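Field reference: "sequence" (input) and "structure" (output). Example, Calcium-binding EF hand family:
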Amino acid sequence: MVKLSKSQLVRQLAKKSFSECDLDKDGAIDAKELHVGLLLVYDKLNKSLPVHLQPPDHDTVQDLLRKYDADGTGHLDFEEFHECVRSVVGLNEKAKFTDSLPAMVLGRMALKMAIFPLAAVALKALLCQVHGAAEKVPNGALVFGVEGLYKVAKVKLQR
């Protein structure tokens, strides 16, 4: 069995996604095809990660196209797309760590494993002071509620 390095796995992921999203098979992808390609990358990543990562929105894809279009054609060839994917998964030295896959996974896991549960415990303590029956509410239900409120607030703030 051949063991592939991280960079080889990312290259294979990029190659497969690029071939699937290059609909007209001209060897270059435009903004729409880039968006599809990144959705494919995120879909494959989300199947193997312990948390779900939100794929980039249309504006972010436009920014990525401008950033990685080295030759200024308005399209990405495979090597440009590969660099874009490398930045998404945190293997591109030029990319900011905060935009990388490890940073996104760590952030999501910190929310799910520490921040939401701590907020739920604080909420339960507050509710117990107001109404004694609140101590019967399961912690898991409160964590679920805190996470739901976070998601609603995030959507509202993005608008």
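The chain has two domains: 6-99, 104-158.
The chain has a mean pLDDT of 84.
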